[in-house]
Design brief:
The complex is a heterodimer of chains A (351) and B (296). Chain A has 15 helices and two strands. With 351 residues, chain A is mainly alpha-helical. Chain A has one domain (79-347): ABC transporter involved in vitamin B12 uptake, BtuC (Orthogonal Bundle). In chain A, strand 1 and strand 2 (157-158) form a beta hairpin. In chain A, 51% of the residues are buried. Chain B has 296 residues and is an alpha/beta fold. In chain B, 27% of the residues lie in helices and 23% in strands. Chain B contains nine helices and twelve strands. Chain B is globular. Residues 1-9 and 289-296 of chain B have low confidence and may be disordered. The chains are: A mainly alpha (351), B alpha/beta (296). The A-B interface holds A 2-4, 7, 98-100, 157, 228, 231-236, 238-239, 241-246, 284, 288-290, 346 and B 62-64, 83-89, 91-93, 95, 99-105, 107-109, 111-116, 118, 126-127, 130-131, 143-144, 148, 162, 166. Chain A: It is a multi-pass membrane protein. Chain A: Keywords: Cell membrane, Membrane, Transmembrane, Transmembrane helix, Transport.
C-alpha cells in the first residue's frame, strides 16, 4: 500500500473496529429495549435461530419473538441503513463541493426529497407502492442537488456563504411545495407530511427496509468506488484533471449517488438533518480526510449515530416516540454553527 | 529507476506542440497565432510582462483551455481527443495557486501524483517514487504535516514534488519559484535541469529573467498574446528587446563567472533616508469618542 496508509493504520483499525462493535451492541440493545423488554442474550439467540443456529435460549416473553421480528428489527435495520446513507451522502457531497459544510440537509437535498415524497402521498400516485415514494423522493432530491450544485459553484469551488445561501433558497422552494401539499392534503396525508418534516423511524415495516436497502447499498458501493478520485478532487478541478480524473463524469456520478442515498433515507425516515455533517467531520478529525477510510468509517459512524438517536427518541420520555430529526438537529445545529465560525476564522472571512 | 522518461520514438519529433493557437477569454484576444514545440531534453522558459499570455499558453498546453483556433498535439495526436488519464501519463502540471479542500498530509498530496499509474506496472514503484520526489523538492521533513499548515513556499514545493512524482515526459510549471527563497529557487531549477538532462521536456513560466538566463535552453518572449522573440537566452535576453517588451529600461550584464546573462532593471539612484525619522513621536489618537459619536 501507499505511504500514508501505513502511518495511520493502527488508528484506522481501532476506529473501524470500535465503530463495528458499537453498531452490533446498539443493534442488540436497541432491539431489546422498549415497552416489552427482551434481554440482549435472548435477542442474540433469536437472531442466531433465524439463521439456523439453535442456542437453546428461547425468548421468554410470549410476544417477544413477534415484537422483535415485526416491530423492532425492521426499525433497527432501517435506522442502520438511514444513518449509513445520510453519512455517505454527506461525505460525497462534501467531496464534490470541495467544502466540509456541504450536507444534504443544509443544502436542501433532504427537503427536496421530502417534497417529492409529499407529492406522491397527497396526489395519491400509489401505483408503484413504496417504490413510488422512493422514486419521487429521488427525483426531488436529484433536482435539489443539481440546482444547488449549479448555483453554488464558481470556478470549481464553493464559497461557504454561497453554499449556505443556496441552501436557504432550495429549502424555501421545497418548503413551499411541502406547504402547498399540506394545504391540499386530507387529514391522513397531513399527518404523514408532518412525519417527513420531523423525521422518525416509528412504524417501520420490512417492505420499506426492502426498498431502502438496495438503494443505500448502491450508494455506499458507489462511494467506495469513487473514493480515490474524491481525494484527487481535493486538489481542485484543474489539478484533478491534470492527474487524470475525468472531472465532469465524476461530478455527475457523485451527484446521482448523493440523490440516491439521501432520497432513500428521507423517503422512509423523513428529514434527519446534520448526520451527514457531523459524522464525516468527526472522522476526518480522527483519521484524516482520505476517502478510502472516510467512506467505510462514515457508514459505520452514521449507523451508530442514528441507532443511538433512535434509542434515545424511544426511551427518554416514557410511552412517547420523539421525532428523531428533532434530536439530530438539537445536536447538529450548534455543531454546524461552531463549524461555520471555525471555517470563517480559518478562511479570514465568510467565504 | 524505471521511469517513463524514456526518449520519444523519434528523437526529433516534439513531445507536445501548439499549432497557431488563438485563445479568446471574456471577449478579449489573449493568444494570437502562437506556435510552440516542446522537445525532449529541453527547458523552455515562457517570459513576458503581466497579461502577455504566458499562463494562458501553459493552460492550453495542459489541456485546461480549448483554443478557438489552432490546436495542441501530444505525441502526434490531438490533445482534445486524448483521454485525461492517458494525458496524465504524458504531462504533469504545477499550477500557480496550490489549493486543497481537505487537510491531507504533504506525503498524501505528493502520492496523488501517482494516481495516473494506478493499475499499471509502474504502480509498484509508488513508494520509492514519492520518497524520491519529496527529497528532490526538499519536502521530505514535511511528510507528516497537514498541507494547510504549510507556508506558501512549502506548499509550492510540495506541489512541485507532486508534479515530478507523476514521472511524465513533459513537465509544465507555472511560476514554480514565485513563493520560494533564494536557496529553494536555485535548488528547484537545478532539479528541473537534472530532469531535463534525463530526457524530460519542461515548459516553465518565470518572472525572474536572471533565473531564465541561467537555466533555460530556449526563451519564448511573449507580448500581448504573440511571440515577440524566441531563441537561446543570449539572443532573446537583450537590453533592446526587454526594454521594448517590458516598457521599462532594462540592463543585461554578461558576467564571466555566471552562466547566462544577468538581467537588471535600470533604477534611479537611491534616495538617502531623511535624518531623525526614528525620533519622530507618533501623534496621539484620542480614544474618547466625540459627542457626535455618542448615541443618546
Amino acid at each position: 500500500m501507499s505511504l500514508p496508509a501505513r502511518t495511520s493504520n493502527g488508528r484506522v483499525a481501532l476506529l473501524i473496529g470500535g465503530l463495528a462493535v458499537a453498531v452490533v451492541v446498539l443493534v442488540v440493545v436497541s432491539a431489546g429495549v422498549g415497552q416489552l423488554r427482551i434481554p440482549p442474550l435472548e435477542v442474540l439467540s433469536s437472531v442466531l435461530r433465524k439463521v439456523g443456529i439453535e442456542t437453546g435460549l428461547p425468548v421468554t416473553h410470549p410476544n417477544g419473538e413477534s415484537a422483535l421480528w415485526t416491530v423492532r428489527f425492521p426499525r433497527v435495520t432501517l435506522g442502520l441503513l438511514v444513518g449509513a446513507g445520510l453519512a455517505v451522502g454527506g461525505v460525497l457531497m462534501q467531496g464534490v463541493f470541495g467544502n466540509p459544510l456541504a450536507e444534504p440537509g443544509v443544502v436542501g437535498v433532504s427537503s427536496g426529497a421530502a417534497a417529492g415524497a409529499c407529492l406522491v402521498i397527497v396526489l395519491g400516485w400509489t401505483a408503484m407502492g413504496e417504490w413510488g415514494v422512493a422514486l419521487a423522493a429521488f427525483v426531488g432530491g436529484l433536482l435539489a442537488t443539481v440546482l444547488a450544485y449549479l448555483t453554488a459553484r464558481q470556478n470549481g469551488r464553493t464559497e461557504v456563504v454561497t453554499l449556505v445561501l443556496t441552501g436557504v433558497a432550495v429549502n424555501a422552494v421545497a418548503g413551499a411545495v411541502i406547504a402547498f401539499m399540506t394545504f391540499l392534503g386530507d387529514t391522513q396525508a397531513r399527518e404523514e407530511i408532518v412525519f417527513w418534516q420531523l423525521g422518525s423511524l416509528n412504524g417501520t415495516r420490512w417492505v420499506q427496509v426492502g426498498v431502502a436497502a438496495p438503494l443505500i447499498l448502491v450508494g455506499i458501493a458507489g462511494a467506495a468506488l469513487v473514493a480515490r478520485r474524491l481525494d484527487l478532487l481535493a486538489l481542485g478541478e484543474r489539478s484533478a484533471r491534470h492527474v487524470g480524473v475525468d472531472v465532469e463524469r465524476l461530478r455527475i456520478g457523485v451527484i446521482v449517488l448523493v440523490a440516491v442515498t439521501t432520497s432513500a433515507a428521507v423517503a422512509f425516515a423523513g428529514i434527519i438533518a446534520f448526520v451527514g455533517l457531523v459524522v464525516p467531520h468527526v472522522i476526518r478529525m480522527l483519521v484524516g480526510p482520505a476517502h478510502r477510510v472516510l467512506v467505510p468509517a462514515s457508514v459505520l459512524g452514521g449507523a451508530v449515530v442514528l441507532l443511538a438517536a433512535d434509542l434515545v427518541a424511544r426511551t427518554v420520555v416514557p410511552y412517547a416516540d420523539l421525532p428523531i430529526g428533532m434530536l439530530t438537529a438539537i445536536v447538529g445545529g450548534p455543531f454546524f454553527f461552531w463549524l461555520l465560525r471555525r471555517t470563517r476564522r480559518g478562511a479570514g472571512g465568510w467565504s | 529507476m524505471t521511469a517513463p522518461l524514456a526518449a520519444a520514438s523519434h528523437a526529433d519529433a516534439p513531445l507536445m506542440a501548439a499549432r497557431a493557437v488563438r485563445v479568446v477569454l471574456g471577449g478579449s484576444l489573449i493568444l494570437d497565432d502562437v506556435s510552440l514545440d516542446v522537445r525532449a531534453g529541453e527547458l523552455v522558459a515562457l517570459v513576458g510582462p503581466n497579461g502577455a499570455g504566458k499562463s494562458t499558453l501553459l493552460s492550453v498546453l495542459a489541456g485546461d483551455l480549448d483554443p478557438v483556433a489552432g490546436g495542441v498535439e501530444v505525441l502526434g495526436d490531438a490533445l482534445a481527443r486524448t483521454p485525461v488519464r492517458e494525458l496524465a501519463r504524458v504531462r504533469a502540471v504545477q499550477v500557480q495557486e496550490s489549493q486543497l479542500s481537505f487537510a491531507f498530509t504533504a506525503v498524501e498530496v505528493v502520492a496523488m501524483g501517482r494516481a495516473p499509474w494506478r493499475g499499471t506496472a509502474a504502480e509498484e514503484d509508488d513508494d520509492a517514487v514519492v520518497t524520491d520526489a519529496m527529497e528532490r523538492a526538499d519536502v521530505a521533513p514535511l511528510a507528516g504535516r497537514r498541507f494547510p499548515s504549510l507556508s506558501g513556499g512549502e506548499k509550492a514545493r510540495t506541489s512541485f514534488a507532486r508534479a515530478i512524482a507523476q514521472r511524465t515526459r513533459v513537465l509544465l510549471l507555472d511560476e514554480p519559484t514565485a513563493a520560494l527563497d533564494i536557496r529553494h529557487q536555485e535548488a528547484l531549477l537545478v532539479e528541473v535541469s537534472r530532469l531535463v538532462e534525463e530526457g524530460a521536456a519542461v515548459v516553465v513560466v518565470l518572472h525572474d529573467l536572471s533565473l531564465v538566463g541561467a537555466f533555460a535552453d530556449r526563451v519564448v518572449l511573449l507580448r500581448e498574446g504573440r511571440i515577440r522573440a524566441e531563441g537561446p537566452p543570449h539572443d532573446v535576453l537583450t537590453s533592446a528587446l526587454l526594454t521594448e517588451v517590458y516598457e521599462h529600461p532594462v540592463d543585461v550584464i554578461h558576467h564571466p563567472d555566471y552562466p547566462g546573462p544577468v538581467v537588471l532593471p535600470v533604477r534611479a539612484p537611491r534616495r538617502r533616508p531623511a535624518t531623525g525619522v526614528h525620533d519622530a513621536v507618533p501623534s496621539p489618537v484620542s480614544p474618547i469618542p466625540t459627542d457626535q459619536e455618542t448615541s443618546p
